[in-house]
Amino acid sequence: MKPIVAITAGDTNGVGYEVIIKALLNGYVFEIMRPVVYGNAAVAKHHIQTLSEDYRNITWNIIDTPEQAKDGRLNLISCYTDNLPVALGSASPEANKAAKASLERACRDLKAGKVQALVTAPINKEALHGGHTEWLAEQFGGEQLMMLCAGNLRVALVCNHVALADIPAQITEERIIAKLTLLNRSLKRDFGLEKPRIAVMALNPHAGDAGLLGKEEETIIMPAIAKANEQGIWAFGPYAADGFFGSGRFTHFDAVLAMYHDQGLIPFKTLDMTGVNYTAGLSIVRTSPDHGTGYDIAGKNQADERSMRNALFMAIDVLRQREEYDALTANPLPFIVRGDGEGKPRREFIDFKTTTGGNRFNNGANGENGANDK
Question: Which of 36, 63, 298, 348 has a 20 to 30 Å separation from 109 between CA atoms?
Answer without folding.
Answer: 298
